[in-house]
Design brief:
181 residues; alpha+beta; two-stranded antiparallel sheet; 4 helices; 21% strand; binds iron/sulfur cluster
């Protein structure tokens, strides 16, 4: 097997210290405001790419960032028990998945994914977390160069619409839209 070309890539990490989180949800507010159209025009935590799983009676708060879109539910599930409480399966999963409404645009149902606040010097949820439950790190890693480019947000959105409505319907809609222009 031939070895692929190696390159250096910056890995961005948000470290989550759940013991420090007080459940204020400032991270959800700023994330949704930053990603609003136009930017900062609204703040709706339902649109955030981070959500805080909360159990105030036990003083447990666990921030979870939105990960990849997945077209199908996974068959393997995780069950967490924290401080004696058993949490629902999938509670801490990062995926935008058909089994639930988490990490989806409330109006369109399109998947949401954390983009590390691309363009900012530091993720905004980290900046807004006053108790340092979220901290940011960057490191360099050597990786084998991928031949295929990862899907961008537009492609992920189109893929999720195609999964939901079928590719033909999506293509018809795009064709109708282009005729209206
Ligand atoms: S801003 Fe920090 S303390 Fe507040 S909910 Fe988010 S992670 Fe927790
Ligand atoms: S890094 Fe940015 S996009 Fe990701 S959860 Fe934090 S505020 Fe949202």
């Amino acid at each position: 097997m031939s070895e692929g070309k190696k390159k250096t890539k910056v890995v961005k990490v948000i470290k989550i210290n759940a013991d420090k989180c007080n459940g204020c949800r400032a991270c959800e507010v700023i994330c949704s405001a930053y990603h609003a159209e136009p930017k900062y025009s609204s703040a709706n935590p339902a649109r955030a790419r981070i959500r805080v799983v909360r159990d105030p009676l036990r003083d447990i708060y666990v921030p979870v960032q939105a990960g990849e879109y997945t077209p199908a539910e996974c068959l393997g599930r995780d069950k967490y028990i924290l401080d004696g409480k058993e949490y629902d399966e999938c509670s801490f999963c990062r995926a935008s998945c058909p089994s639930r409404d988490v990490f989806k645009e409330p109006d369109s149902g399109l998947p949401l994914k954390c983009d590390m606040c691309e363009g900012e010097d530091e993720p905004l949820c980290v900046k807004w977390c006053l108790v340092d439950a979220l901290t940011y790190e960057e490191r360099e890693e050597e990786v084998v160069e991928e031949e295929e480019q990862p899907l961008d947000a537009l492609e992920v959105g189109l893929a999720s619409l195609a999964d939901k409505y079928g590719l033909d319907k999506v293509l018809d809609a795009v064709a109708r839209m282009s005729l209206k222009e």
